[in-house]
Design brief:
Helix content is 69%, strand content 0%. By secondary structure, the protein is mainly alpha-helical. Helix 1 runs parallel beside helix 7. The protein is globular and about 50 Å long.
């Protein structure tokens, strides 16, 4: 985040490098998830980045591995439950206090530096949850 990347880019690119995906490509892939998915004020970027990580590491490779789809969905659900338990929501406006889809709220969030105050903790929390999940399975 300190370099200016979004929450989704920050989470995904770190784990991507560890698992053989070029960090530049990872940041490109995760770009659209910033600001609650394309700045629509929906799913938190730290969460979407984490779900990308879970798919990269534990996702389905082919239609011959359909059971992995269900396993991947179960991991996503587990991550989301843990994130909600820690932060209370997975929705960007709930976490940030501003809806990025509303131009006036977006401008005010920038003015007060809301993302710089809130998002680093969300990224750290997402990484902690991922580390716990990936190291326990």
């Amino acid at each position: 985040l300190d370099e200016g990347y979004s929450c989704s880019q920050s989470v995904f690119s770190v784990y991507a490098k560890e698992h053989g995906l070029d960090p530049v490509m990872a940041r490109k892939l995760a770009t659209g998830f910033g600001g609650g998915v394309g700045r629509t004020g929906n799913l938190c970027g730290a969460v979407s980045g984490a779900i990308l990580v879970l798919g990269l590491i534990r996702g389905m490779n082919s239609l011959d591995e359909l059971e992995w789809r269900d396993k991947s969905y179960a991991l996503d659900k587990e991550f989301i439950e843990k994130f909600v338990a820690k932060f209370g929501s997975i929705q960007c406006p709930d976490l940030l206090g501003y809806n990025m889809a509303i131009p006036e709220e977006f401008a005010e969030s920038k003015r007060v530096g809301a993302a710089k105050k809130v998002c680093p903790e969300l990224v750290r929390g997402a990484a902690q949850i991922l580390d716990e999940m990936l190291n326990s399975k």
